[in-house]
Design brief:
This protein is α+β, with helices and mostly antiparallel strands. It contains 8 helices and 7 strands, in the order αααββαααβαβββαβ. The strands form 2 sheets. The protein has a 5-stranded antiparallel sheet with strand order 6-5-4-3-7. Strand 1 and strand 2 form a beta hairpin. The radius of gyration is 19 Å and the shape is globular.
Length: about 220
């Protein structure tokens, strides 16, 4: 059985790969994401490579092998189903469940996860809109735009929030920008790096580019 450390590294590489495309994931990126020293990350990556879970190119980076990708997807599946369970069944706030799921994802069995999946109605996304991998480890790619590049003055719906920071989640919840909410981007100011959003309910909201880049939307049909 893989250790929790191995699972954490594989999940980290998996998530970075999703945004990196075909590019290798650097050990510096892994170290920063996991909060460890670069030397520690490099040593662990070499161990994963010896186990056949990743392909490692010294001084270039790493990518998951098929076995590592499958294991990482299963860890991510456990994490996101646990988050949804904690919100929908346990009544926890969506801003509080990420660190809890980080702990529980290593402790629950596949049998329990499958039962949770069934109980929740085979959901496709967690409370933050992140897609949940299938039982076989497949994850459908998405290309939804962010508030930075969606069309202006077109009604859209929030489908995903990519930052799990508690304060950030509480901020956008206060602004009415949680997944499922409707809005329009009415203006972007390149000089001030701000986006003006008109929520379906409430006053217009001005967001910085960094915050806007973490909110993915989909046009209403």
């Amino acid at each position: 059985m893989p250790t929790s450390t191995v699972e954490d590294y594989l999940k980290c590489i998996f998530l970075v790969q999703q945004s990196a495309g075909d590019r290798l994931v650097s050990t510096g990126q892994i170290a920063a994401a996991l909060g460890v020293a670069p030397g520690t990350a490099t040593a662990m990556v070499k161990t994963l490579a010896e186990s056949g879970l990743v392909e490692y190119e010294p001084y270039s980076g790493v990518r998951l092998e098929p076995a590592g990708e499958k294991l990482a997807a299963h860890v991510l599946r456990r994490h996101r189903l646990i988050e949804l369970f904690l919100v929908q069944v346990m009544g926890m706030d969506w801003s509080e469940v990420h660190p809890e799921a980080e702990l529980l994802e290593h402790a629950v069995s596949d049998r329990l996860i499958d039962r949770i999946d069934e109980m929740l109605g085979r959901p496709e996304a967690d409370p933050h809109g992140d897609p949940i991998p299938s039982e076989s480890g497949e994850l459908e790619p998405t290309d939804d735009p962010t508030l930075l590049d969606c069309p202006l003055d077109v009604p859209v719906r929030v489908v995903r929030v990519t930052d799990q920071d508690r304060d950030f989640l509480r901020l956008i919840e206060r602004f009415g920008l949680i997944p499922g909410s409707q809005m329009r981007v009415t203006d972007r100011d390149e000089q001030a790096d701000t986006v003006l959003v008109a929520p379906g309910v409430g006053e217009p909201v001005k967001l910085g580019f960094r915050a806007a880049s973490k909110i993915l939307v989909r046009a209403l049909v």
